[in-house]
Amino acid sequence: MISQVFILSSKGDHLIYKDFRGGAGNDIVSIFYEKVTALTGDQPPVVMNHKDIYFVHIRQGGLYWVATTTAGSSPFTITEFLNRLAALVKDYCGSLSEKSVQMNFALIYELLDEIVDYGYIQTTSSDVLKNFIQTEAVTSRPFSLFDLSNVGLFGAETQQSKVAPSSAATRPIQSSREQGGKSEIFVDVIERMTVVIGSNGLLMKADVEGEIRVKCYMPSCSEMRIGLNEEFSIGKSQLRGYGAAVRVDECSFHQAVRLDEFDSHRILRLCPSQGEQTVMQYQLSDDLPSALPFRLFPTIERDNGGRLLMYMKLRCDLPPKSAAINVCATIPVPKGSMSLSQELSSPDQSAELKPQSRAVVWQIARFAGGTQLSALFKLEVPSLSSASMLEVGPVGLSFELPKITATGLQIRFLRLSPIQPGPSQRWVRYVTHSDSYTIRI
Amino acid sequence: MSVCLQLLLRSVPGLLGPHYKRFFCGYAEPAYIKERKMQVLVELVNDENVAMILDELKGYCTDVNTDTAQAAISAIGRIGRSYSDRCLQILTGLLGLKQDHITSAVVQTMRDLVWVCPQCSDTVCLALDGCEETLQDIQGRQALLWLLGVYGERISTAPYTLEVFIDRVRSEASLGIKMELLTATMRLFLCRPAETQDMLGRLLHYCIEEETDMCVRDQALLYYRLLHCGIEKTREVLQGRRSDPSLGVLIGRPAKPVSQWARCFNTLEPLSQGAVEAESDSRGSPEHVTYNPKPNADLSDTLSCSHIEEVDSGSDSAMRCSDSSTNVLASSIAAPLSLSLSPAVSPEDFEHLWLQRQALHTERGAEKIEEVDCAWIEECVRCPAVLHCSPQSLQAAMQLVNIQTLAFTPQHMLPWRVYLYTHTQRSHSMDAPNTTLILGELLCTGEANQKSGVKKCTADSEAGAEGKEDQLVRKEMDATADRLRVSEDGQEEEEGIKVILNQQPKDDDALRQFLTILITVLNTLSSEKD
């Protein structure tokens, strides 16, 4: 099975190295790093081989997580193992970064000892490991104003008690002996959109992949019930126009979820283990209930002075109260474009020409729903011909839509039973972001 | 994972048809994923979705990453084998962009397309006008020269383009371009002598007198002497095939059975076998695909019962059939195995080794022969027409894949026997031996009442190799009249050819692969004769 596991920083520093089989030479790590850096600018494939040894790696938190193995093992198992290892380290150390791995190397070695035995994977469940891991995590929490008292001016309650910062979910899970600490549950509904719009404005492909993730900081396991929308349905309906409002094509659940109340009331029951787990994953294609968030109306022409004029009108079709943040449009331009002059409608947008990736990058910090923004770009292209207008390629958009789900999935309630003795807090967050939103011109 | 998908698609072609949209590439995906997705998209093409898929691929052709763009263009070329009009339209449009990597990929794709679909040649000839200024890289220029040579009579500016190349030949660094230039100029001379004569003379003069590389010089000398033999001979040699429509039709390939790859499905083995039959786009001109350097010409001295001298002259027809056979082979040999004829085995050594192993096999009986570390296989192949091949063509065909035939009975004499050997070499071997020697015999008794069993060799060669320990002893020198085999359909007029192989040291994988190669050659030969 697995011969070695090691973690490298993005610069190639050895952070963790563990050899289970004792067979390989000392230079394994440098061989791997050479292979990775040999492919300049491009992502290396997940599985690479060097003579008889296969390297399987993932990148998370800016670190390389690598396992080496022989030809007979299943690459999917090892990739899944590496993903779970990274998730476990994240649970135990709070956040995943080079610094946290360096501070907690003893804990990580202990984890590896328990998880893998002589190259064979034993368990990656944090419930089971809770009984064996003794080391405490060391964290450095960034200073935050939210840590100051919750009480506002004149004793009134402030907004702070109702909104938790995103760093609240990044503290390490407690080991079995400590009883202190707040018990909290964070539920995230995260969706990714992949959309391709053709040059005639018609939708060619639209896919949404979503998951419900639960991060649990409760010391004892109690049952949790998550209620989804009542009208949530799975599968395509036969009659068009009579379909349910909230629909997915297929969904899959974590193995610990009990579905006896799902058919009748759309309630999921599970006992979450400490740390993060994905409770449900679902997919929807080609039939989104809401309108597409962005549409583009481009006009590309050549002016008399031999310059390329691109007039981009981007329209946001979200409901008026919501907004998209960090919107970034990447417009490929013909080779040899030299300089860009732009006219943008507001100062918080910016655009620049990136010669290496041969594209104009237009960034918008915040895009309110129901509005449209336009920009005019003038490019100097020395040898402009009518054929090179073909090179103004498909526009790629990346964005994040907070508090919105594309499928309309909502969590109606979250109940814990038995009722916890101390105050327990439940937090829910929705976000949709773009996986690959392409608009052809 | 995409490697697994490709394996799956080869066995169950219709499986992923409706889901082709899933394989459209996102713009930020890493290049290796995009290439794999494009390969899968090509396999999913059918009449309904071809327009959408071509549109998608057209969008990728202008990708920033040049490798991705070139992969997209060759994917369009492969779809063009079945849907040539649309693809040619797209390719011609891409030429208008005047970008060197795109033009180079388009010209190479057009060359490959024309080789398979000669009906596209008109459109291609029209499109080639003006390409030469934009082409910078070696493969693109080689492809252009090949096209100019073969279709020169239809391209009006061909002599002038060649003249530009010939004027620059002194500063040309690439060996492949010079060779291609020689061949193209000769071909053009044959159809347009008046315009080309002068520059051909200059080119030959340069290559023979001033060129330092021996390959080019020898080629030029060959052409010079050929011209001296007369124009008819030259035409015969140079104007070979222009196309091979049997290659590469997308739809209609026989599906490989699932059992062949099910064993290694969820492991890392498919990756170690190299690209799973991915067509290589950077090969040279199609006729040179079969180029195999032949070692040990002195083998002819030691052979007593074969006619080597006549091989060359009679090899024209053999070249043709082996051309297609090795084309098929080139795409089906898994990377690790290569065959070679060195060190040479003389007939006496062969006889000695054969009888020795035969005796050992007899002694042991049905027990496992692991101590002696050699393997036996016996298979039956149904291709009776091989009997009607001349020994020379059989030998030439075998030699092209580096199998040496040592002895055979004269044509049309029964029982018909051929003895052959080869050395297998594995480049990537973990626990298998690096080289093995395989001795083989092909036998056909030709008795009408002998029932011959047919085993599908590719699917069951695994079973055949593993069942070798169970096979009873046979002495092939004895009469085979009383041998009966289980038959599925007892046809009496068609006989099968029995293939007996002995390999030392034992390497099951190599033996199986060799058996596949051998059977492919036999099948090709017999189909040529039909």
3D shape of chain B:
globular
**For the terminal residues of chain B, how far apart are their CA atoms?**
42 Å
Number of beta-strand segments of chain A? 25
Number of H- or I-type helical stretches of chain A:
6
Question: How many independent structural domains of chain A?
Answer: 3
Q: How is the main sheet of chain A built?
A: 9 strands, mixed
The CATH topology of the largest domain in chain A, please?
Immunoglobulin-like
Mean pLDDT of chain B: 69
Shape of chain A: globular
Largest interface: A-B, 40 and 30 residues
Strand content of chain B: 5-15%
**Which residue ranges of chain A are poorly predicted, with pLDDT under 50 across at least 5 consecutive positions?**
none
Helix content of chain B: 40-55%
Structural class of chain B: alpha+beta
Q: What's the total helix number of chain B?
A: 21
CATH architecture of the largest domain in chain A: Sandwich
The major β-sheet of chain B equals: 6 strands, antiparallel
Strand order within the widest sheet of chain A?
13-15-9-8-25-23-18-21-20
Describe what you observe in this structure.
- The complex is a heterodimer of chains A (441) and B (530).
- Chain A has 441 residues and is mainly beta.
- Chain A folds into 3 domains: 2-130, 2-Layer Sandwich (Beta-Lactamase); 181-290 and 404-439, Immunoglobulin-like (Sandwich), CATH 2.60.40; 294-402, Immunoglobulin-like (Sandwich), CATH 2.60.40.
- In chain A, 12% of the residues lie in helices and 43% in strands.
- Chain A contains 6 helices and 25 strands.
- Chain A starts with a strand and ends with a strand.
- The mean pLDDT of chain A is 81.
- Chain B has 530 residues and is an alpha+beta fold.
- In chain B, a hairpin with an 8-residue loop joins β4 and β5 (435-444).
- In chain B, 35% of the residues are buried.
- In chain B, α4 packs antiparallel against α5 (84-95).
- The longest helix of chain B is centred in the middle third of the chain and has 24 residues, at 309-332.
- Chain B is globular, with a radius of gyration of 26 Å.
- Chain B has helices at 2-11, 31-43, 50-60, 66-80, 84-95, 100-116, 121-127, 138-150, 158-167, 175-191, 193-210, 214-229, 231-238, 259-262, 269-272, 299-302, 309-332, 347-364, 391-400, 457-466, 508-529; strands spanning 337-340, 375-381, 404-408, 416-426, 435-444, 497-504.
- Chains A and B meet through β9 and β25 of A and α3 and α15 of B.
